[in-house]
Automatic annotation (TrEMBL):
Entry's Gene Ontology BP terms: signal transduction
One Gene Ontology term of the molecular function aspect: metal ion binding
Keywords: Coiled coil, GTPase activation, Ion transport, Metal-binding, SH2 domain, Transport, Zinc
UniProt superkingdom: Eukaryota
Record keyword NAD present: no
Cleaved signal peptide residues: none
Record carries keyword Metal-binding: yes
Protein name: N-chimaerin
Domain Phorbol-ester/DAG-type stretches: 211-261
A GO cellular-component term linked to this record: proton-transporting two-sector ATPase complex, catalytic domain
InterPro entries xref list: ATPase_E_C (IPR038495), ATPase_V1_Esu (IPR002842), C1-like_sf (IPR046349), Chimaerin_SH2 (IPR035840), DAG/PE-bd (IPR020454), PKC_DAG/PE (IPR002219), Rho-type_GAP (IPR051854), Rho_GTPase_activation_prot (IPR008936)
Gene that produces this protein: Chn1
Length: 711
């Protein structure tokens, strides 16, 4: 009695508590981040590429540099990518991705599948999409990801709660928690399950410890971690899954998972807490059995019940029904003999929708629906058509089927509001947080766990769906036959048939308009593509022409510069030649000076004799210097003998003379003319000019700044 009394008191506050704790069951923050991640955009290579690998498509740009790839990606925007051939190694490829205003380069490999790290992908686009999701989550929720495994209490996780409840029911051989001993003390868990604290878990102490057998798993549908309750992000190889019990988790969470694998519970097939799309694909049914059964039973005997969906049902009975549907949906019975309270059925439905990982009206559908409805309940044909299109395009098929069934059901409830006191506005206020879970940031959910306020725009959108459900959703044949069996009149049947025909015509017209719009859009896209191709060709042509003109201009400037430089060099050489010629003319004046010339001639003769050091030499001079040379030879021979101790016999060539225009000096021959030493003023001028020309150039023209070597 104490047990049932406590549960009765708790049931009055159950709605607010479960709304507050619903976010602790499945955490959708990472799912929202994945949906907001930028989508990949391929930068198509429009130029022909030689030897393109067969496993690459139009994203391969061949041998281009980093600067070129960065320019292409910057112009394409966030999420753009391309593949280029690496310059460092042959048959090596680099994947370039634009993210957060930067170009990131990764070495790309292929062994039948594309990969950068451990994950393998069938296409480069899939690899880029997965990478963009990971980088987006790392950027916005890195701290949250690092903390989510450490801050999780495994005993409060969905997987642990479900396994403990199943084990206790198995030990005590009961079909529901209502058979528990009255002496047990109860508390409410974060997932809305009654957890018995004082019952001794025999198998937990006697069962041998067994670790999970984890394997990398690619989840084809949205999946949440059974350890921390957070969404497992990514597209391929997102997490790990136990091959024996189906426990799925993040890689970090799998490291902290306790050794509690139960091989007899392979791939737990439950109804509550399972994504609608996953459930529909697994069980091959558009609407879950629990929704159909509850809706049929409520409409059969409870549409006129006052406070429908507002009054809370028995928590114990709801939990009992929940466990029955989780164990075997087909064996669950909702007849009056088993469930006499209609509010327990409405509570079971609300609990089912509240525990969905993805709300019945998904985040994307809610956003578009709020924008389309615009806070107004009036419904003209165009608005109804637009809302119907939004529901079809944004909601998954499983969500569409369940929403259609439940919205029509709520409309029938609102039609009897004069009996049950539940108008479409009241129903929307009660169910808006259940069907349209309010989203928030990771930090908001962590810091402020209080239940969110009723969102007014979502409230108006849900009220619009309930009010105009017959016009938005077609009535299935199953429901029509059931109502005929319940005794509908022929007029009601004809009315429903007319509604069905009108809806089909409306769908056909919308489909035709959609086909026309799509054809026009494809035509515009193709036209734009052709225009872009021609524009690209024209731009390439003009770019080539600009490069050619620029090259010609550079060549002309270089030629003009070289010509000017050559003219300057020629002028400098002419000036140096003039200086040397003037020097030669002044040498003639010296040789004509009778006072200065004899000592110079004597020194020239002595230097020539000392240079040869031969016993017999022949001198050749100008004809006008013959007398002077004859006079100077004895003294020159004596000085040469003193300097070298060699007695030299000198003769004068009286037949051959130096040119008359010569500046003076002598030429010395020996060994029959085989050896010749020029000791003239011109030869000395040439030697001096060769040695001093660089210094003369520096003195006259200045130092050349471009000259780096002086030797």
């Amino acid at each position: 009695l104490v047990f049932y009394a406590k549960c009765a008191v708790m049931s009055d506050h159950r709605e607010d508590e479960e709304s507050r704790l619903g976010s602790a069951y499945w955490k959708n923050q990472l799912l929202l981040l994945q949906e907001s991640a930028v989508k990949p955009t391929m930068v198509t290579c429009e130029k022909p590429v030689k030897e393109r690998p067969a496993f690459f498509g139009a994203e391969f740009h061949g041998l281009i540099g980093r600067d070129e790839s960065d320019r292409l990606l910057a112009s394409a925007g966030e999420g753009s990518y391309l593949v280029r051939q690496s310059r460092r190694a042959e048959y090596s490829y680099t994947l370039c991705i634009r993210f957060d205003g930067q170009t990131k380069n990764y070495k790309l490999f292929y062994d039948g599948q594309h990969f950068v790290g451990e994950k393998r992908f069938d296409s480069v686009e899939q690899l880029v999409a997965d990478g963009l999701i990971s980088m987006h989550i790392e950027k916005h929720a890195a701290d949250y990801v690092r903390r989510m495994a450490e801050q999780t209490i495994y005993e409060h996780s969905p997987y642990s709660q479900f396994q403990r409840m199943r084990q206790r029911l198995k030990e005590h051989h009961i079909s529901g928690v209502c058979a528990l001993s009255p002496s047990c003390r109860c508390r409410s868990s974060p997932v809305g399950v009654v957890v018995v604290e004082d019952v001794f878990d025999v198998e937990q102490h006697q069962r041998p410890v067994k670790s999970h057998t984890f394997k990398v798993q690619t989840f084809l549908t949205p999946h949440w971690c059974d350890y921390c309750g957070n969404y497992i992000w990514g597209l391929v190889g997102q997490g790990l899954k136990c091959e024996e019990c189906g426990f799925g988790a993040h890689r970090r969470c799998a490291e902290k998972a306790p050794q509690d694998c139960r091989p007899d519970l392979k791939y737990v097939k439950r109804t509550f807490g399972v994504d609608l799309t996953t459930f529909s694909m697994a069980h091959r049914m558009p609407v879950p059995h629990v929704v159909e059964c509850c809706v049929d039973e409520i409409e059969r005997r409870g549409l006129d019940t006052e406070g429908l969906y507002r009054v809370s049902g028995s928590h114990e009975q709801i939990e009992k029904l929940r466990l029955q549907f989780d164990a075997d949906p087909c064996s669950a019975r909702l007849c009056p003999a088993e469930v006499d309270d209609v509010h327990a059925l409405t509570g079971l439905l609300k609990l089912y929708f509240r525990l969905l990982p993805i709300p019945l009206v998904t985040y994307a559908a809610r956003r578009e629906l709020v924008r389309t409805v615009g806070g107004r309940l009036d419904a003209d044909p165009d608005k109804l058509k637009l809302v119907g299109r939004v529901l079809r395009e944004t909601l998954p098929a499983a969500h569409q089927a369940v929403l259609a069934l439940f919205a029509r059901h709520l409309h029938r409830v609102a039609e009897l509001s004069h009996k049950n006191r539940m108008t479409d506005d009241n129903l929307a206020r009660i169910l808006v947080l259940t069907l349209m879970t309010s989203s928030g940031t990771v930090e908001q959910q962590r810091i402020d766990p209080a239940p969110p306020l009723v969102p007014q725009f979502e409230l108006c959108a849900l009220q619009f769906l309930i009010k105009h459900a017959p016009k938005l959703f077609i009535e299935p044949t199953r429901t029509l036959l059931n109502k005929q069996e319940m005794g509908l009149s022929d007029d009601d049947v004809k009315k429903q048939l007319r509604q069905m025909i009108a809806f089909i015509e409306q769908e056909a017209n919308e489909k035709a308009e959609e086909i026309d719009a799509k054809a026009e859009e494809e035509f515009n896209i193709e036209k734009g593509r052709l225009v872009q191709q021609h524009r690209s060709k024209i731009m390439d042509y003009y770019e080539r022409k600009e490069k050619q003109v620029e090259l010609q201009r550079k060549i002309q400037n270089s030629a003009m510069f070289n010509q000017a430089r050559l003219r300057i060099l020629k002028a400098q050489e002419d000036h140096i030649s003039n200086v040397l010629n003037e020097t030669r003319s002044r040498l003639l004046q010296i040789s004509n000076d009778p006072t200065a010339y004899p000592p110079i001639l004597k020194n020239l003769i002595i230097q020539a004799l000392l240079q040869l050091l031969e016993p017999e030499v022949t001198l050749r001079c100008r004809q006008k210097d013959l007398a002077l040379l004859t006079q100077l030879i004895p003294s020159c021979v004596d000085e040469a003998r003193k300097a070298s101790s060699i007695d030299c016999r000198v003769s004068i060539d009286r037949e051959n003379f130096l040119a008359d225009d010569s500046a003076g000096g002598v030429e010395v021959y020996t060994l029959g003319g085989k050896i010749r030493v020029a000791s003239t003023l011109e030869s000395r001028l040439e030697i001096i000019s060769d040695q001093l020309i660089p210094d003369i150039r520096v003195t006259v023209f200045g130092r050349n700044p471009n000259r780096k070597f002086l030797d």
